[in-house]
Structure formats: C-alpha cells, structure tokens
C-alpha cells in the first residue's frame, strides 16, 4: 500500500501570519527568519505523518510539497524511505501523485479553512482573489477540491491536520471518519492558540497511523456529476476575464459559473479561471 501526503503551510503549528509562510523571493511582507522556522515545522509535520503511515503498514510514502512555490520542505529532515515532490505547475497541483498506481490514501497536513471563514487563521481558497467556490451549491475550499480530485483517481482522503476550524470543515464535508488533528485553535485571521510543536508532531503521527490503518474501508470522495460550479472573485474585473472563457457563464458582477462532467474537468477549469482572473487592478 502506498500513500500520498499533501503538505500546505498555513495550517502548520506556530503559523498565524502571511509573513511566516511567504518565501523571501516574493519580496514585500517577508521575514526570512520566520519563514525558515516555519518551513522546518512544516517539514517535521510532514515527516510525522509519514512515520505514522509507515507504522500502519504503508510501503511507499510520497510527500507533495503544496505551498506557494512548492519548494518549502527541507528533505534532509525527512525519513529516508520517503519520496517527495517539489516545484510548482504540476498537472495535479497539490495532490500530484494520487494518480500513481497502488495509492490507497491521501493525507492532508498543514491545511487551512476556506476563504471567508470567521476565526480561522489565514483562511483562503487557492489565491487571495477567490472569495467563494460552490459545487452543486456547497461551499468548497482547498481540502474539498483536492479530495474531489483524489477521488477521481479512486483515492480516499483519510487524514487532515491544521487549525481546528479547517479540521471541522473537512470532517463536515467529507465525513466524520476522516481522522483530524488540530494543531492550533483559531482566534482570528491572524492569531491562534497552538500546541507545542513537538506535541503537534506526536499527535499527527498517531492520527496518521490510525487513518492509514482504516484506509481499506475509506471511500473516495465524490459529488453528483455533472456538477454545477460557481466561482466568486474579490473584484468584478476578474469575473470580466473569467466570464469570457468559452463554456463559462457570468452569474453576477463577481461570479462566474460552469458545468463539469467529472472532477478532473472541474479542478482544471477552476485552476484555469483563477489564472485568467489574475488581472492588474491598478491599470
Ligand atoms: Zn498554502
């Protein structure tokens, strides 16, 4: 049995600010020291999940670095049995690897709540331009979209760690049998009460072990297809662009809609529209 671990950064223990998760190459509001510290904890949490998976009998563990540039993990700190994926612009983005044969489960580490969630640290969906995503009328964040894409390949999502609100959203959306580990309690968009980083890793390792032990009975996540998708942006100029893509309709000033026959089409269309909508607002 093989597993894929998708690792984001906003939901990692100790993180509560964009400053901590912004690689210095972006410029602007960055602090290299804080970023370097946060990527170490991100790596430790990914490794904790890998150790739990191995303890549960996984033979292959593939870790997908899935934040920003997707070059955050420090592989020297990872267990030597893992393989890892780094670098952006991947065919399946944050869940690259689930398409490989023999993958029995997806684990999500360091995940965060969807855009617009009150009290959830660094809540967002994909990039800062997306205000809301609805699939068949249900609000979807990154875990939902990624679980759906993994489900397209028959891979169930069995574990999530992050802030308490992100964990609750995943369990509400995917089912209570997804094992969740909250490494912090959200107080606001930019504050949280955290576990000790070492305790967070212990809980992630134990949770991942339990989740992978149950993977054989977990079901891949799916929705009713064809699915109706509505994507709302933070500015009408973005919807102007996205709404001109063939097959996409304009719903209201900031919202576009489309229909998808399967999760692969849904996910890739979502990505493309987010890309198209990245227009300059100061021109
Ligand atoms: Zn991220």
From TrEMBL:
Species whose genome carries this gene: Deinococcus rubellus
Name of the protein in question: M55 family metallopeptidase
Any Pfam family: Peptidase_M55
Annotated InterPro entries: DppA_N, Peptidase_M55, Peptidase_M55_sf
CDD domains named among the record's database cross-references: DAP_dppA_1
């Amino acid at each position: 049995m093989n597993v894929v671990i998708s690792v984001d950064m906003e939901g990692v223990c100790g993180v509560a600010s964009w400053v901590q998760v912004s690689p210095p190459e972006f410029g602007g509001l960055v602090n290299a020291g804080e970023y370097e510290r946060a990527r170490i904890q991100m790596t430790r949490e990914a490794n904790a999940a890998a150790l739990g998976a191995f303890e549960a009998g996984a033979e292959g563990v593939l870790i997908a670095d899935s934040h920003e540039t997707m070059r955050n993990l420090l592989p020297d700190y990872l267990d030597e049995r893992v393989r890892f994926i780094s670098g952006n612009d991947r065919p399946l983005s944050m869940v690259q690897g689930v398409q490989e044969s023999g993958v029995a489960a997806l684990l999500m580490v360091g995940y965060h709540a969807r855009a617009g969630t009150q009290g959830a640290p660094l809540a967002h969906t994909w990039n800062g331009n997306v205000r809301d995503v609805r699939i068949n009328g249900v609000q979807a964040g990154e875990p939902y979209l990624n679980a759906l894409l993994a489900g397209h390949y028959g891979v169930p999502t069995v574990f999530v760690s992050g802030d308490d609100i992100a964990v609750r959203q995943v369990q509400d959306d995917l089912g209570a049998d997804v094992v969740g580990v909250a490494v912090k309690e959200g107080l606001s968009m930019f504050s949280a009460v955290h576990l000790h980083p070492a305790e967070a890793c212990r809980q992630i390792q134990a949770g991942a072990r339990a989740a992978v032990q149950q993977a054989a009975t977990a079901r891949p996540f799916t929705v009713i297809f064809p699915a109706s998708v509505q994507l709302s942006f933070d500015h009408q100029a973005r919807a102007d662009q996205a709404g001109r893509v063939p097959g996409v309709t304009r719903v209201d000033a900031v919202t576009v809609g489309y229909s998808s026959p399967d999760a692969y089409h849904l996910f890739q269309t979502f990505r493309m529209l987010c890309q198209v909508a990245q227009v300059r607002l100061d021109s």
